[in-house]
Design brief:
Strand content: 15-25%
Shape: globular
Number of strands: 7
Radius of gyration: 15 Å
Largest sheet: 7 strands, mixed
Order of helices and strands: HEHEHEEHEHHEE
Oligomer: single chain
Distance between the termini: 39 Å
Number of domains: 1
Number of helices: 6
Structural class: alpha/beta
Length: about 190
């Protein structure tokens, strides 16, 4: 899984320019694989990674080994309760697909409450295709998420509804070259 995550991180930073951001909160950032790639791609960026205590320690070791830990604060916490406020952007990478709609809405509402009017939400997820034959890897992951977690992948339209339900408007969807069908959905707080 680490190899796949590293490849996907490379695909995300190749597709989306993080360089214009000053501060980023990686919500549910795991071991810091994507955050490390983001920090290497955007030398002026400072970040916060939020995840469970045991996971944060693993992220610390990885980010130190990559030489970017000094630009990243690591916060052990529950992202359903609160995330650090006031960042330029909030990143949810491969997090929402772990949760059914009600829990995903709770998580998005927590992020929305921390955001300022100019903040952006960046959702990195595989988008379900209209036809299974167009992205079989995404369909397999959808079944995997359903069986193991009762969660699922979603179509672009389903993400747009989920985001609208929690006070966001989608600004753009940036596809990546990932064979897993990943895209970066950039959303802003709705007026």
């Amino acid at each position: 899984m680490t190899g796949r995550s590293e490849q996907e991180a490379g695909d995300v930073v190749a597709a989306y320019d993080f360089g214009g951001l000053g501060g980023l909160v990686d919500v549910g950032g795991g071991h810091g694989i994507l955050l490390g790639a983001v920090l290497r791609s955007a030398p002026g960026l400072l970040a916060v990674l939020v995840d469970q205590p045991a996971v944060v320690e693993q992220a610390r070791r990885r980010l130190e080994a990559e030489g970017v830990a000094w630009r990243c604060e690591l916060v052990a916490g529950d992202f359903f309760s609160a995330v650090p406020p006031g960042a330029d952007a909030y990143l949810l990478s491969r997090v929402l697909h772990d949760w059914a709609d009600d829990d995903a809405r709770r998580l998005l509402a927590t992020c929305r409450a921390a955001m300022g009017p100019a903040s952006r939400l960046l959702v990195v997820e595989a988008l379900l295709p209209e036809r299974a034959v167009d992205q079989p890897a995404v369909i397999r992951m959808d079944l995997h998420m359903l069986v193991l977690l009762g969660a699922r992948e979603r179509t672009e339209a389903q993400y747009r509804r989920l985001l609208a339900d929690t006070g966001f408007r989608v600004e753009r969807v940036v596809p990546t070259a990932s064979p897993a069908g990943l895209s970066v959905i950039e959303a802003a707080p709705a007026a």
